UniProtKB/TrEMBL annotation:
Organism: Syntrophobacter fumaroxidans (strain DSM 10017 / MPOB)
InterPro entries per record: BchE-like, Elp3/MiaA/NifB-like_rSAM, Methyltransferase_Class_B, rSAM, rSAM_horseshoe, rSAM_sf
SUPFAM superfamilies per UniProt: Radical SAM enzymes
The keyword Acyltransferase is annotated on this UniProt entry: no
UniProt keyword annotation of Ribosomal protein present: no
Single GO MF annotation: catalytic activity
SMART domains the UniProt entry points to: Elp3
Protein name (database record): Radical SAM domain protein
Pfam families in alphabetical order: Radical_SAM
PANTHER family noted in UniProt: ANAEROBIC MAGNESIUM-PROTOPORPHYRIN IX MONOMETHYL ESTER CYCLASE-RELATED (PTHR43409), BLL1977 PROTEIN (PTHR43409:SF7)
Keyword line: Iron, Iron-sulfur, Metal-binding, Methyltransferase, S-adenosyl-L-methionine, Transferase
One CC-aspect GO term: cytosol
Residue ranges of domain Radical SAM core in the record: 240-456
Co-factor requirement: [4Fe-4S] cluster
């Protein structure tokens, strides 16, 4: 009999506006495996698509669910993992036949209450009596916002329809919320009590609806080590490795305090895995047939000044893995990037945010455009791809300051550089729990609004969206991030073909913003490059 089903995510929500403008072919993203399938089938996509759901960053199972699954399996719990609920709903229905006691929802990728409400409603439609537990960042963020109700001038009214615990409208039918950023041990105890038919009301760090209101149990200090739990990769089911790519965490937390960021630190301290532990983990992962690893750190190993030593350790271990990670530019200033490439790094992600000095200062980025240009240039020279995220509309932003960001994007890369440059542009979001959301900051910048709709003394959200669409049309030689490209197929192209494919893809996406989709043009254009 099955004890628990863990759900990592619902689907593919994103706040990126540029991502929504990317090219589609036959109703699917124009990633290389879909384009090749279309060329092989006279302009139609015929399933199965060769290279789909394998060897790309997008298909790697999400780490939040893997952490929970490893914890439960290690305690002798019979558990199964659903990585993406709506695309795996058929499998979820099959698992229900084993009469699981509990569904565990991780809210790491839940963006709002409606997403959770819809998910729980769908689960209840096929399993009305199953016990549902939800925990993770969205739950904890909702609790922190609720705690600000007594803060003078702090807006908790606008978030009330998007976050939990603030009103009773569209209340997700969840039996138990775990209100902690390190609540794995609470989950374990809750499952044990439910299996034995006992009440969970005595657990700390939880909340439930009593029919009239939410009831919160006392807060507590965790009973476990402050470091995050390790993952027993040897004990993970084979299905988790079939994509050829996995997510790994080399450090936890983020010490930076960017003004726009609502990163929830909670009571879990920042932590870097010891290098020996990390290498051992990667060795076990490689033994399971994995080729690609995406480190999901906010800044690889918290930007420690030992990157060269890390690369040497990877090489000494003979890992033969290709990997990517987020880095702060300052972490790469003194690094040997040729060594980084030899150690398997094929892509660096970077939150550049803006190429305007004043905007960066206001964001508290502690960076400058010259450093970004210098580091990105060196990465591209070394043959390491670089994908960068940008924000338009932070208080102080003007059309002129964003033009400097667009100029920066257009300057990357030069034709001789072997690395590929890509980007994603997000509108500024006025998010609860971010420093800029505080009343004093709002007053300083004449900032009003909430989330996607806002205005301040130099820009408003509608103008920011227009800026993104304008930039999308203007940028020529690079393209938005397409994280679903099959990496093996892309590696099989010559550098010239890769660059031409990326340039054509973006050119076609711009064309079809204003004109009807032209299948014959798409087939003919891609065929000239890929056939």
């Amino acid at each position: 009999m099955l004890d628990a089903i863990v759900i990592s995510d619902t689907g593919n929500d994103t706040y990126s506006v540029s991502s929504l403008l990317r090219l589609q072919v036959e109703g699917r993203p124009a990633i290389i495996q879909n384009v090749r399938n279309m060329l092989e089938n006279d302009g139609r996509i015929v399933d199965p698509v060769k290279g789909e759901n394998e060897n790309n960053w997008h298909c790697a199972p999400k780490l939040n669910g893997i952490v929970l699954l490893s914890r439960l399996l290690g305690e002798g719990v019979n558990a199964e993992l659903i990585d993406s609920y709506y695309s795996e709903r058929h499998r979820f229905l099959q698992l229900l036949r084993d009469n699981p006691k509990m569904v565990v929802i991780s809210t790491t990728f839940i963006l709002n209450k409606k997403s959770l409400y819809d998910l729980v409603r769908d689960i209840r439609s096929v399993a009305p009596d199953i016990y549902i537990v939800a925990g993770g960042p969205f739950v904890y963020s909702s609790y922190l916002i609720m705690q600000r109700r007594g803060s003078s001038g702090y807006d908790v009214t606008s978030p009330s329809d998007d976050y939990l615990f603030l009103n009773d409208d569209n209340r997700p039918d969840v039996d138990l919320y775990i209100v902690s950023m390190k609540g794995e041990w609470v989950l374990s105890k809750a499952l044990g009590l439910i299996k034995s038919g006992k009440a969970v009301s005595g657990l700390p760090d939880v909340a439930h609806w009593d029919g009239r209101r939410y009831v919160f149990s006392p807060r507590s200090v965790s009973e476990v080590d402050p470091d995050d739990p390790s993952i027993d990769w040897d004990g993970m089911p084979d299905d988790l490795f079939k994509s050829g790519a996995v997510n790994v965490q080399a450090s936890y937390g983020c010490p930076c305090k960017c003004e726009f960021c609502n990163f929830v630190r909670g009571d879990r301290p920042a932590h870097v895995k010891p290098l020996g532990v990390l290498v051992s983990e990667l060795t076990r992962i490689a033994a399971r047939g994995i080729k690609y690893v995406r480190f999901v750190d906010d800044n690889f190993r918290l930007g420690r000044n030992d990157l060269n030593r890390v690369c040497e350790a990877f090489l000494e271990a003979g890992l033969n893995l290709k990997w990517m990670s987020f880095f702060r530019a300052s972490s790469l200033e003194g690094a040997d990037l040729e060594l980084l490439k030899r150690a398997g790094c094929i892509e660096v992600q970077m939150g550049v945010e803006s190429a305007d000095r004043e905007v960066l200062r206001r964001m508290n980025k502690k960076s400058d455009p010259d450093m970004y240009a210098r580091v990105i240039g060196r990465l591209l020279d070394a043959g390491i791809d670089c994908s960068c995220c940008f924000i338009v509309g932070f208080p102080g932003e003007t059309r002129e300051s964003f033009e400097r960001t667009v100029d920066f994007i257009e300057s990357m890369p030069n034709p001789s550089q072997p690395g590929l440059f890509s980007w994603s542009i997000y509108p500024f979001l006025l998010v609860p729990l971010s420093p800029i959301y505080e009343p004093a900051k709002r007053a300083e910048y004449g900032l009003s609004g909430y989330m996607k709709e806002w205005k301040h003394s130099t820009m408003d959200s509608a103008t920011a969206h227009r800026c993104i669409r304008s930039a999308f049309r203007r940028i020529e030689n690079t393209s938005p991030i397409y994280s679903g490209d099959n990496l093996e197929m892309m590696a099989g192209l010559s550098l010239e073909k890769k660059k031409n494919f990326i340039k054509l893809r973006h050119s076609l996406s711009k064309r079809f913003l204003d004109a009807p989709y032209d299948k014959s043009l798409v087939v003919r254009s891609f065929a000239e490059i890929l056939k």
